[in-house]
Design a protein that fits this description.
Two copies of one chain form a homodimer.
Chain A (H helix, E strand, L loop, with lengths): L5 H8 L3 H8 L7 H14 L5 H7 L5 E7 H9 L5 H16 L3 E7 L6 H12 L3 E4 L7 H10 L3 E4 L9 E5 L1 H15 L4 E4 L6 H16 L9 E2 L5 H12 L7 E4 L2 H13 L9 E6 L2 H4 L6 E4 L2 H14 L11 E3 L2 E3 L10
Parallel strand pairs in A: 1-2, 1-3, 3-4, 4-5, 5-11, 6-7, 6-8, 8-9, 9-10
Antiparallel strand pairs in A: 10-12
The first copy, chain A, binds a DNA duplex (30 and 30 nucleotides) through helix 2 and helix 4.
DNA sequence: GCAGATATTGAGAACGTTCACAATATCAAA
DNA sequence: TTTGATATTGTGAACGTTCTCAATATCTGC
């Protein structure tokens, strides 16, 4: 009803529309007195600029869109696995957007759909966002990046991998994290360490494995080939890998899982086999979503700074006068090794 | 760049803007031939209506906003507790929105802020959403409902409680769920059953407690006053309540927790005390977020249909030619008692 | 005190849609 | 046929901003 527009403010303050607009947008060339006068009128009337009109008139839409892979997200959620990752991303980015009057919209995209690019085009045309946040694995998808470049939409890539340097990139040092996890186990005295890789199409999977290998080599500890299990991030994959490792003649005394789901699977299988964690088997997982901290025992884990990364991505897109820039170095955020009860020295 | 507008389509098809608009919006009074011709032009040019312009011209914004309480959400998330609830809500509602070309925006509101209503006004003025989804405890806040009524914004309330019948309401039968949980324990042979209530400002807390009392009374089982612990949904509250219950002369043989966090707290405390779940203590929780299913033992729980509720809320707002309607009965969605390993007959 | 630069304000068009209504075409009944 | 009703299409204004550019006011340095 009320529908206070810029016109009302202009009339109230006795100035032109343009002047009000300048004040609202912190434009240059406004005297302090004028700014004050207009501000007073704005406060008095409770004026808030209309987003749609802003988009129509100007070049900014005050809208960011996050592209999230639909299938794994919905499937995990339907399977009761939760999608804490999505929540963390949103809760990290939204407050940052808010600070500058932006809004964040979550879009679910089916990476394997033939219509993927059509869908992206539709989103861009319809929403005309000021920026796009790409979550993995979309953040590694060259064809999506090509499309965004072509459409001249700024974008920020979360955990983008290393073979494409375009766009804003926000990551953590997955390799170093794996090194730290491995060293933690080595320091405790473990030498027989199993490693469960994540899904091959995620760059982080490779990086984590590399870190593990490097740390082991560095310590002069040999890795038996059968200790490294290629897998996926899923619970099922964790079950399969755990079974394979437990069936070995000389099973590992410690396992590093590439996801919390995998780790939980290992924990469950261990219990089924009558193995005690941590007495018989030390366990470290990657990501540190809630189920991990509250499991019994609480698991030692690498805490992934998902929210901070999303916040950073939003900040880059909002501040970054972003396009046509030379490729900037990726922004690498700190992670943390949270030591809980699942890692102890191996049994003698 | 490309920026194909309705004008281009009109020219391509050799018709007026208005006709294209009618086809796009499935308007009446268009011949099949014409519809075909315009559709062809739309497909050929890849036209997608611009959301902002639509909002400017017409009365619909194709936008729904979800109001979520900021403090508990952010605090839980910062404490590493996850916000699976938020993710479930979004993943339930977003696909439904998508189906009709709508978008869903998540807004975090601080329920205790003095500026709450100012903030809501700002969101409405700036975004002009076609509907608002209220999550608890906002869904019970009369002043928010008053404001939305006054601004004539349709709204749907999730788990709204029972003392205000305005607006669309979507809920599950919390009372019946508590009855079912209690009966499950009674059927197993438990008589000494503890109950941990949720935060008092949430309507569901009361409803669940009522269900528990009713089921016990129905079975002729007495409830010792000290078995019912007033608390909050949090992990800390669960710890405190568990300690209090375990310290009793004759402690309960089973506990119903009003949230997963509470239940996990009980599980942890039980372990600390050397109590085995389920042998020494049966445990049921409410909500069934992921940490529960993957804990050891996996917990029996009431599965809250959060996603389905959000989907329904979105549907009501999208379809509902919603305002000035007589108060409709609440839409009650089915829940489920998922029996896992944490409930067995009591020790003799 | 004057020319030129620069800072400040204002006016009107433009953005891409839908709305209200006017114009035309088509149809059924007299 | 003719008439009135109805189905189909088109026209111009409106939505609330920002953009471009022009107009004016205010500074500099000589």
């Amino acid at each position: 009803m009320g529908a206070v527009t810029i016109k009302h403010v202009a009339k109230e303050a006795g100035v032109s529309l343009q002047t009000v607009s300048r004040v609202v947008n912190n434009g240059p060339n406004v005297t302090d007195a004028m700014r004050e006068r207009v501000r007073a009128a704005i406060d008095k009337l409770g004026y808030v600029p209309n987003m749609a009109a802003r988009r129509m008139g100007g070049s900014k839409s005050y809208l960011l869109v996050a592209f999230n892979d639909r299938k794994p997200t919905l499937e995990k959620w339907r399977a009761g696995r939760g999608s804490d990752w999505v929540a963390q991303m949103l809760l990290g980015a939204i407050p940052r957007c808010e600070r500058d009057g932006y809004h964040l919209l979550l879009e679910l995209l089916d990476g394997h759909s033939a219509k993927l690019h059509q869908k992206i085009d539709a989103i861009i045309s319809s929403l005309r966002p000021d920026g796009v946040i790409l979550t993995p694995p979309h953040s590694q998808d060259r064809s999506i990046i090509d499309q965004l470049e072509h459409r001249k939409v700024p974008y920020a890539r979360l955990s983008p991998g290393e073979d494409d340097e375009r766009g804003f990139r926000v990551r953590m040092d997955e390799r170093q994290a794996a090194v730290m996890a491995t060293r933690h186990l080595l320091d405790l005295g473990h030498r027989r360490i199993g490693f469960l890789t994540g899904s091959a199409e995620y760059a982080v999977s490779t990086e984590r494995l590399e870190g593990f290998r490097a740390a082991m080599a560095d310590a002069g500890a040999a890795i038996a080939p059968e200790w490294v299990r290629q897998g996926e991030f899923s619970f099922e994959s964790g079950i399969a890998s755990a079974d394979a490792l437990f069936a070995l003649r000389g099973p590992p005394t410690a396992i590093i899982a590439s996801s919390d789901e995998q780790a939980l699977a290992v924990l469950h299988r261990a219990k089924d086999m009558g193995l005690d964690v941590p007495a018989d088997l030390s366990l470290i997982s990657f990501d540190d979503t809630p189920p991990i901290a509250f499991s019994l025992p609480p698991l030692t884990a690498i805490r992934h700074p998902t929210a901070a990364m999303a916040e950073r991505a939003a900040a880059l897109l909002i501040e970054g006068h972003g396009l046509d820039m030379p490729p900037s170095p990726p922004c690498t955020l700190p992670f943390e090794l949270v030591v809980r009860g699942s890692t102890v020295p191996p049994r003698r």
